[in-house]
Predict the 3D structure of the following.
Amino acid sequence: MKGSKIKRSISQRVVFAVVFVLFCIYAITLIYPYIFAFNAALKESGRVFTRDMVSLAKPARWKNFVDVFGEFVVSDSGYFKMTWNSVWYSFGGTMVKLITVTLSSYVVCKYRFKGRNLIYNTLIFTMVLPIVGSGPAMYKLLSDINFIESPMMIFTFAGGLMDLMLFAYFKSIPWEYAEAAFIDGAGHFKVFYKIMLPQAMPAISVIFIMTVVSCWNDYSAPILYMNEKYPTLASGLYSFHERIRYSHKHPIFFAGALFAILPPLAIFIAFQNSIMDKVFLGGLKG
Amino acid sequence: MSKNNSRKIKQSVFIILMLTPAIVGFFVFYIYVNFKSVVMAFSFEKGGETFYGLDNFIRFFKEFTLPDTMFKDTILNTLKSFLSTIVIVYPVSLIMCYFIYKKIVGYRFFRCLFYIPAIIMPTVSAVLFKYIISMEGPIDVFLMRFFGRNVPDFLQDGSLAMGTIIFYSVYFSFGGNILYFGGAMNGISQEVIESATLDGCGWVRELISIVIPMIWPTFSTLLLTASVGIFTASGPVLLFTQGGFNTYTISYWIYEQMLENNNLEFASAVGLSCSVIGFPIVMLIKWGLNKIGDKVGA
């Protein structure tokens, strides 16, 4: 907003000042746990930790951040392997999801065919169905088709019929470009990936980022389905912490935890403007 | 004519190919899974053989009516966490978002920072929270130094544990909603706000009479999504107490049956019962939201 010197009355200023103070307090409570974790990661392992976790780590054991890679082991997987598992799980799962919904959202949005409304209405209907107990059936299915403890798990991300945000975004892209290309003799596939896909990239990349981050952080499916052979960082941190009562490696845990939250943070900071400003506006309004 | 036909065929082939991955995925992981879930709910084993009937539902009903049943607390906990989202998270994040929208000092920084809990791994943030509120943790040390007393055992006390988990879920989920509300608020045209201000419209009035009606579609979508998750979204119980100290919720209880590969048919029946109860509730909420939507003219 240009030249937005907003004039506020005195009572408004008081309220804004109070809210500002509250915001600052909230901000501190959000940041503090990570200062605590950083300090804890520099402490000495062993029983000492649980008796004194708050005092400043003296001397600071920076070596803990290196030792993570040797000592952070969950069901025979080390930290590097868990990181790799997180990488393929989140990127693979995201690609599977993104490819399925991008293709279907595009076709349902831009083409008229029999069953088009059925797909759209089915999607809307499933969105208001409060399904609670399908987990056990999913578990049985995945164990029947041998997906459990296997990289095939990424294909479970293909359950979505289409994506409403992408649908709305495709709708906002004019069809004239495509018509011009058809006249020039381009086929349907070519129009899709040469003309429409590049224009939808802002929406696709935001969905990509959000999905990668949520897969990276997901713990419930990896704990349930992959934790023996393919622990991810999220599920590995859980299992490592479950045994911390016996291992007393708290500082190693915190060092591993701090590394694990870095990639989503880095992605978020790099793309915060496009996430915050651009697409959600169009997406939710559409 | 034949040229036209081949063009049509080409288009049909294209449409079918594009839809295949989504349709296959949907049939396997949605239709089939839910169908199987219903079949499982009605099936039970006796002496190594599978029978079909209402036994699981009868068992659920019986267990539910027992005086020391855990299911009553489980349902209650589930509803508590649902209501905390509706009653606390949405209104508070709406108000927070309003001040960010009004460009409070440092609003860019706050908007960015408040969103960060939404992208931090729960297995990290929940454990951190656990240590912060634990014995010998920072809050405990602070209380000890200035008030000479210890923190209560938040997560190992049946009367506090669920409240603590709900507090955690509520406290760290404002930022995610600020993103949604913020997107909607930015869509309000500045002229409307300016002309209202010129007419002497105060900012509380502005929030209630302009901002909320204008972002109503987003607000009602969020409320509807939350109500669809009424029995499923109930906090990271696994990371805190694993159901101990009266903290079972429906979804965690079902998850635990899966972890232990135990009682899967019974769990399906419990889930199905909750879905059947949930459906009219969601429809009612949807109807109510539409009514309000008509009224505010959004």
About this structure: Chain A touches chain B through 92 residues (CB under 8 Å). The longest helix of chain A spans residues 250-285.
